[in-house]
Amino acid sequence: MPRLTTDFLHGIWAGVTLAWDEQYRLDEKIYAQNIERTIAAGVHGIYTTGSTSEFYALNFDEFCRMVDIQADLCGRAGMPLQIGCNADATHKVLRMLEYAAGKAEVGAVQVTLPYWMELNDRELLQFFQDLYTTCPDLPLVHYNVPRAKRFLHADDYLRILEVAPSLISVKYTMAGSHFGELQEDMRRTPGLCYFIGENLLVSAMQLGARGCYSSLVMTEPRFMLEMYDLAQTGRIEEALVLQQRATQLFRDIKNLITERGEGDCDPVFDKGLSVAAGCLLGHQRCRPPYISWSDETVAAVRIRLEQNYPEFIYRGD
User: Fold this and answer.
1) How many domains does the chain have?
2) CB of 269 closer than 8 Å to CB of 257
3) Does residue 91 fall inside a structural domain?
4) DSSP class of residue 3?
5) Is residue 155 part of a domain?
6) Closest-CA residue to 202 (of 244, 171, 139, 173)
7) Which of 51, 77, 105, 108 has the most Cβ atoms closer than 10 angstroms to its Cβ?
8) Cα(236)–Cα(242) distance, rounded to whole angstroms?
9) Cβ distance 264 to 257 under 8 Å?
10) 67, 58, 123: which is closest to 97 by C-alpha?
C-alpha cells in the first residue's frame, strides 16, 4: 500500500478495539478475526491504538505485534491503514513511529500530544519537528483531543506545517464544543483533511470535513457507511436522520449504563457496545485500571438495541 495523501484520505475509518484473553494478554486470534471482519465490511480504512484501542495499555513488544498483524491483514486485502503512535514522552513515540515506518502497508500514523503536562508553543513545535525529522516520508495525522491538555486550532497547525510538512489530517474530537472554530480552522488550513465524530459528521461534511474516524462503525458497519454515502452524494436530509439516530443512541446507552453504575470511558463504552451489537468477537474486557461492562450490562444493552435501535445490530455478510 502506498503512503496516504490528502487527495486519497476520506470516508469511514474503523477503530478496531484490542482483544484480551482471560489473563489480559493480547488475544491475537480474536484480534485478527475482528480485523478480517472489519475489512470484509467495506470500510474505507482502519486505524489503531487511539483511546478506543487502549494505546496506553500496550508495551512496546505488544505494539509491534499489533502492527505486524494489522500490516499483514490490511496489506493482503489492500485496506488503507493508519497506526496510532501515542505515548507520554517523545522518545517513546519515536520508537513506535520508526517501527510503523518500516511497514510499507502503513499509510500514515496518528499521534496525540504527550498528555501528562500541557506543552507550551516551543515544546509543541519541537515535538512535531522531532516526528518529521525522524520519519520525514511518513504522513502524520494529529489526534486533536482535550485529554492532551491542549486543543489545537488553525494558528497552531500553520506553525506546525512549517516544521512538519508531512501533517495531512486532523482527527477533530469534541467538535460540538468547537463547531464555530472548526469551520474557521478548515477555512484557514485547506491543505489538511478534517475528520469528525459520528454525532456531527453530516453537518461537518457540508463545511468540508472528509469523514470520520469511527468506533460506532464497529456495531453494524452499514449504518456509518450509509450515513457517509448519503452525505457525500448530497442527500443531506436523509443523512441527517441517521446522524440524529447516532446521537440518540449514544445518549440513550450512556443513560442506561449510568443507571447500572457502569463506566463510559472510550474503550469501555465502545468495546461494550460493539460486543452487545454482535459485531466484535471476544469479550468486552479492558485492561485495568479501566473496568469493562459486566456481562449482565452487555445483555441489557443488547435488549435496548433490539427494542429501539435494530439498525445497530450486526447482520453479518
Assistant:
1) 1
2) yes
3) yes
4) P
5) yes
6) 244
7) 108
8) 10
9) yes
10) 67
Q: Which three cell numbers stand for residue 165?
A: 510538512
- Residue 118: per-residue pLDDT: 96
Cell numbers at 62, concatenated? 505488544
Residue 316, domain member (yes or no): no
Helix axes 154-163, 179-188, angle to 10 degrees: 40
In whole angstroms, give the CA distance from residue 205 to residue 288.
37
> Grid coordinates in use for 310?
435494530
Using an 8 Å Cβ cutoff, are 44 and 80 in contact? yes
Element (H, E) at 195: strand 193-196
- 57-96 pLDDT, tens digit per residue, is 999 999 999 999 999 999 999 999 999 999 999 999 999 9
Note down the domain range covering 48. Answer: 11-235
Query: Which H or E run contains 246?
Result: helix 236-259
207-246 burial string, b = 16+ CB within 10 Å, else e?
eebbbbbbbbbbbbbbbbbbbbebbeeeeeeebbebbebb
C-alpha cell at 98: 520508526
Q: Above 70 in pLDDT, residue 128?
A: yes
Spatial distance between the Cα atoms of 178 and 207, rounded to a whole number of angstroms:
14
**Bridge partners for 211 per DSSP:** 11, 195
CATH number of the CATH domain containing 128: 3.20.20.70
C-alpha cell at 136: 520525514
Whether the predicted pLDDT of 317 surpasses 80 = no
C-alpha 121/C-alpha 139 separation (Å) is 22
Q: Answer whether residue 250 is part of any domain.
A: no
